[in-house]
Write a structure and sequence with these properties.
This is Cysteine desulfurase. It comes from Dubosiella muris. This protein is α/β, with parallel strands linked by helices. The protein is 40% helix and 14% strand. It folds into two domains: 128 residues, Aspartate Aminotransferase, domain 1 (Alpha-Beta Complex), CATH 3.90.1150.10; 239 residues, Aspartate Aminotransferase, domain 2 (3-Layer(aba) Sandwich), CATH 3.40.640.10. The strands form three sheets. Strands 2-8-7-6-5-3-4 form a seven-stranded mixed beta sheet, with helices on both faces. It has a three-stranded antiparallel beta sheet with strand order 9-10-12. Helix 8 runs parallel beside helix 12. The protein is globular and about 65 Å long. The structure holds pyridoxal-5'-phosphate. Pyridoxal-5'-phosphate binds next to helix 3.
Length: 376
């Protein structure tokens, strides 16, 4: 199998799987129980939190464990808006966010918030100037992703954070799911940031929201005292403890993996550009982990299935939108044609991919276009 769908999810590192299995078997006690095994789980959980906080350069109390990035985004956006309504009614976001952010924003709009969705420019980003131009006195929150999950474009979040902080009452949340472990993230400048374990070779069911201590949130999952009362429910201690190792390994290997993935992306990009009917849809300066391309001869759906038959896994759009038959909104927002949007496929890479796989993909594409493709 060739797995080019790493923006959707990644394989679990064997080292992490081993630690996780041991924790599931041995540290099953409830971290809030007062007996010895419970206290041991709590100790391990707090050590993991401290390691993660140190890696991000924030305080231990600024790490909130959640079950997935969708939950972190929901808590950051809805939780912040509900707890701080008196500060303003206006919220800025973009028109290409992940569905968890989009739907959180739709919900806030339905209860009376004024949500403004900024368009992306030709580089697939929202510039700091665009944010500056749209900030208002009553802007409560700005939420913009760091790296786009369909095209790999990189928002200038450090500059955006600076602009947002010229407004004393406004805060900035960034969905860093597709950037964490791939490029540096300016956590010191962010008020809230979302990270998910399963995008960086960790286990599913574990994610976090980095939230600075001054930020007040309304909990969305009601329950006990867990996670400072921000998220009720028995802690998924094994997964969250394993997240510390996942994060350490991702950061240790960040530079090496970036160069490795870039070689694979560059090879495929050059090939697509020279292939008759092939188009690169990701912007020129996109993160090399994500390459969005289209082929005039073949629609996304047919191509996805044909590649699947050859043992090659790719996506057409974001996996969370994959059951909708509509063309990719993100590709359309980037001003590509409707045809490109309905022919787009996303190749996304990880440390596990090889140049040999890239070559096999090219060969498979030639065969598929010969067999299934419409003649140009
Ligand atoms: N944000 C981005 C940018 C993503 O790519 C994804 C997953 O595809 C998510 C959020 C949601 O992640 P999770 O599956 O952990 O909820």
């Amino acid at each position: 199998m060739i797995y080019f769908d790493n923006a959707s999810t990644t394989s679990v590192r064997p080292e992490v799987a081993r630690v996780y299995k041991k924790l599931v078997e041995e540290s099953f006690a409830n971290a809030d129980s007062m007996h010895s095994p419970g206290r041991k789980t709590k100790r391990q959980l707090e050590q993991a939190r401290a390691h993660i906080a140190r890696s991000l350069g924030v305080d231990d109390s600024e790490i909130v464990f959640t079950s997935c990035a969708s939950e972190s985004n929901s808590l950051a956006i809805v939780g912040y808006a509900l707890a701080n309504r008196q500060r303003g009614n206006h919220i800025l976001t973009s028109n290409v966010e992940h569905s968890s952010t989009r739907h959180a924003m739709d919900f806030l709009e339905s209860i009376g918030f004024d949500v403004e969705r900024l368009p992306i420019n030709e580089r697939g980003i929202v510039s700091a100037q665009a944010v500056k131009d749209h900030l208002r006195k009553d802007t409560l929150l700005v939420s913009l992703m760091h790296v786009n999950n369909e095209i790999g474009s990189i928002n200038p979040i450090e500059a955006i954070a600076d602009v947002v902080h010229t407004h004393p009452t406004c805060v900035f949340h960034s969905d860093c799911v597709q950037s964490f472990g791939k490029i540096d993230i300016p956590f010191q400048k962010l008020d809230m940031a979302t990270i998910s374990a399963h995008k960086i070779h960790g286990v599913k069911g574990s994610a976090l929201l980095m939230k600075k201590n001054r930020i007040q949130l309304q909990p969305l999952v009601f329950g006990g005292q867990q996670e400072q009362g921000l998220r009720g429910g028995t802690e998924n201690a094994p997964a969250n403890i394993a997240l510390a190792k996942t994060i350490r390994l991702a950061l240790e290997e960040q530079e090496k993996t970036y160069d490795h993935v870039k070689t694979i992306r560059d090879t495929l990009k050059t090939w697509v550009e020279s292939f008759p009917g092939g188009h690169v849809l990701s912007p020129e300066d996109a993160l090399p982990y994500i390459l969005n391309v289209s082929f005039d001869q073949i629609t996304s759906e047919v191509l996805l299935n044909a590649l699947d038959e050859k043992g090659i896994c790719v996506s057409a759009k974001s996996t969370c939108d994959s059951r909708s038959s509509q063309a990719s909104e993100v590709i359309l927002a980037l001003n590509h044609s409707k045809k490109d949007a309905s022919h787009a496929i996303r190749l996304s890479f990880s440390k596990d991919n090889t140049l040999e796989e890239a070559k096999q993909f090219m060969q498979a594409m030639k065969e598929i276009v010969e067999n299934y493709g419409l003649s140009l």
